[in-house]
Amino acid sequence: MNYKYKKNGIDGLKDKEHKIGSPSNLGDKNHEALRGFMGRSPKELKYLQTCWTIRLMLYRLQNEYNLEPIYTTVKRQLKILGYL
What we know:
Elements: H1 3-8, H2 10-13, H3 26-37, H4 54-64, H5 71-81
């Protein structure tokens, strides 16, 4: 029987400080990549669009930076960077 369970019952099994897996740095990579190209227009980077859309940003992050963020992640990063 688990020692924590014997000592504290069900609450002893709850480990509030333990997180499964290693911390993700994907947010940091997305953040740096976005900061790197948001100061430039899509036209400068040889895209047909005249302004950035989240879908175009996703395309660039996937194809130029080899990242796989989702729409909401990019939107959240844009808010952090002050673009939204």
